[in-house]
Amino acid sequence: MLNDLAWIVVKRRAMVDRKISKRAEIRLKGSDISARDNAGLAVAASTIINAFSIIRDRGLIDDAELMRMAYRFAGEVVDIEDLLKRGQAAPKVAPQDLETPLNPPNQEVGAEKEGGGASLPKVEIDTGTGEPKDPGLR
Fold it and tell me: What does the alpha-carbon distance between residue 116 and residue 13 come to, in Å, rounded to a whole number?
């Protein structure tokens, strides 16, 4: 909407001012509305990625649809086909070489931690404030 409005302004001004090009490039950039919005988007994106990854693993959707949904729920607009091409060209990393909370460096995939199996820490985000619900995590 803002882009359309800017184009209208440029075209109208160009009608009375020959210094203004009707072909001028217009770029709109904006900042995030609030940290709370980012927290809500992060929770939504994480939830949808987990759900749609299962659907993808079952062969019910393709990589493009998984990425489209992931970026949509993250609030980002991207060129999915371009991202898929770039992803295919990126160097491949074996799962055992990834450093994650479940697979820290120098530890085998699936290795159990003392006192039980490996697991991700659970952090609940208050979508109203964008803050962790556990006060110790602030």
Answer: 69
The answer to whether residue 100 is domain-embedded is no
Domain interval for residue 51: 42-90
Q: For residue range 51-89, list pLDDT tens digits in order.
A: 999 999 999 999 999 999 888 888 788 899 999 999 888
> For residue 6, what are the contacts with CB-CB under 8 A and spacing of at least 6?
26, 28
Report phi then psi at 131, rounded to 5: -100, 150
Q: With beta carbons less than 8 A apart as the criterion, state whether 63 and 70 touch.
A: no
Give the count of beta carbons closer than 10 Å to the beta carbon of residue 62.
Answer: 11
Q: Is residue 47 part of a domain?
A: yes
| Number of residues in the chain | 138
